[in-house]
């Protein structure tokens, strides 16, 4: 009788373990990691506002970094530069066994203009040579897969900012792909700019917190920007050229409600002038790391949008004719389609 009882207990433990493992596998597919740093008021402000909303409870301590849990969302705090802590997604997985599906960083934005802004952007430094040092984190020649939420969240952020009377004081804008830290998961930065006065603004912090709350469906609504539920809308914009705030790419994103991949500005497409004798589409004669940047941006964008149709959109006015000719030829060589504004309808 005792032996039967022991066998029954062992069987129940085995079933519980299998059930736990099954639940863990299910949970691993859905974990979102939100990252904040205590050293940045534009990071910890929105994080604190988010944690003041219902449903949060303490999570595991990961390498002495505290975390908080709300449904399938994990918020992790650390005390270092937001662009220097590499591979937090993998470090979370190693510590908890949960696979990170996406990463969202909360951060400050700086600009020479000092203009107040709320920004969203992908990350990476795909244009840097291997022997160069990235001034703001990341690995030369690398870009993280862009978080598919970037486009939908830009539009949601604009709506939230308007409802909180932050417009037109704050500009709501995309930024080009830039800086680290290095990650492997689909990643985006959400930022408040551009001076300490605005980094500490509680209304701006509340707007960013609400963006994350609504965008991830923590309030019970449908999450915004879930690529797996895109209803067949499969065109993805890969922006090439233009300035840091990519206005011509953003016009299309706002007008047509499309998905957004990497946004590679002109300064991240270094092209060495081949001279007049090689200016007629001879891409081998055009030096610089521009081809590397385009290839990395396309490959990581494609990886972030399975079965998506990635179309390169060129800011034509930002290129000289020889630059445009070289880029168009390289895109054709790589079988990367070019999309005009009307193609994103």
Write up what this structure looks like.
By secondary structure, the chain is of the alpha/beta class. It has 2 domains: 30-229, 3-Layer(aba) Sandwich (Aminopeptidase); 235-344, 3-Layer(aba) Sandwich (Rossmann fold). The chain contains 9 helices and 11 strands. Strands 2-3-4-1-5-8-6-7 form an 8-stranded mixed β-sheet. A 3-stranded parallel β-sheet has the order 10-9-11. The N and C termini lie far apart (72 Å). The relative contact order is 0.13.
Helix tally? 9
> Number of DSSP strands?
11
- Uncertain spans, ≥5 residues at pLDDT below 50? 1-28
> Would you give the CATH topology of the largest domain?
Aminopeptidase
* Top-tier CATH class of the largest domain: Alpha Beta
Structural class: alpha/beta
What keyword list fits this structure?
globular; disordered N terminus; Rossmann fold; Aminopeptidase; alpha/beta; three-stranded parallel beta sheet; 345 residues; 34% helix
